[in-house]
Design goal:
Layout: H1 5-22, E1 25-26, H2 27-34, H3 38-50, E2 54-59, E3 62-67
Antiparallel strand pairs: 1-3, 2-3
């Protein structure tokens, strides 16, 4: 089932609040803690990145997310 824009927007808010509370965190950890499916999670990350609210960097084999 395809995610709706509302689902993605809600997930983007959840990701933002998580990072605001916890600081830079590995993407897989955020996804697991928020219990989001891969499609919705990565669409939400893309949404935040497009709005220039997110830094994404590689650390070894991890993808780390942080708020700007």
């Amino acid at each position: 089932m395809a995610a709706s824009m509302q689902d993605i927007g809600s997930a983007a808010g959840e990701v933002w609040r998580f990072l605001n509370a916890n600081g830079p965190t590995a993407a897989d950890t955020v996804k697991r803690k928020l219990k989001l499916g891969s499609d919705v999670f990565y669409a939400a990350v893309g949404w935040l990145a497009r709005e220039d609210k997110l830094d994404i960097r590689g650390e070894g084999r991890k993808l780390v997310l942080a708020l700007k």
